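Q: Convert this sequence to structure tokens.
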Amino acid sequence: MTTAVDRPVLEVLELRKHFPIGRLLSRQRGMVRAVEDVSFSIARGEVLSLVGESGSGKTTVGRTVMRLIEPTGGQIRFRGEDITHLSRRALRPVRRHMQLVFQDPFSSLNPRQTVETILSTPLRVHKVGSSHAGRRALVEDALRRVGLFAAAADRFPHEFSGGQRQRIGIARALMLEPDLLVADEPVSALDVSVQAQVVNLLLDLRDQLQLSMLFIAHDLALVGAISDRVAVLYLGRLVEIAPTTALFSSPRHPYTEALLSAVTDPGRAGAAAARIILQGDLPSPIAPPSGCAFRTRCRYAVAACAEAVPPLRVRAPGHFAACIRDDLSLSSPLADPA
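A:
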């Protein structure tokens, strides 16, 4: 029997999101297939990273999971409850347990509000705290938790650096003590020196609060530092999902191999020479290639790759990949030398 402790915090089953293209003479001109049959789960306290090129559908997955965008199909289960088609009213008590950290710390905070107002808004909306003094105490505690001083509550966002603003954004997401945090490229707008601080903060909070996290990023080196598992997305489809160590040392999909080859590792001799340069641009999600969508850019493609969409198959314990070429021996610059 599965208990509430053993049950995944988030389960996503065959999630699809299609965006219709503008109509002409009452006829739909086409459909952008942004997300196609994506399935994964996140356990309590686990960090699952979602990686891929710009335009692969990472942000769409994150926002659809949060029900900020309505799914076209599939199922989203949060703490065992199917929330796929819940009304806005029914979703309201659920939303306090799943929060989002935005990519841009500059535009995600209201410049006309003090930090106290920004952080106390979730408390007022969900009726947490019986008085102003009680909510102020929760705000100050949240600021200290993310490494800021309590007096920061009286200041405005423009008085802080980018890294400090992102800490405020994280504090806002934690005000209601959620079970799931969706972090949508939370450090991409920050200096490299600040990125490590924010990542370390997220890891500390994960350990302290047993947070589950969907971490969306394109920086594989960063992903390796924070993730328990990694899911690789290409043109809206998952092509590989595995524990971080296994995926980094032994990729099973050519697209993952190409992404890993771009990771800078000064300690590896010849790493630059092994860089795989993908030819061409990401295909259009309006008219994706038949069969494996990656075949038009894959150096290992054969005629059979165009025949059918390859399903995710078990390639090792906990390691799944969507590639028909079982004969391939793929490399990684992060693999331990023999």
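The CA atoms of residues 292 and 335 lie 26 Å apart.
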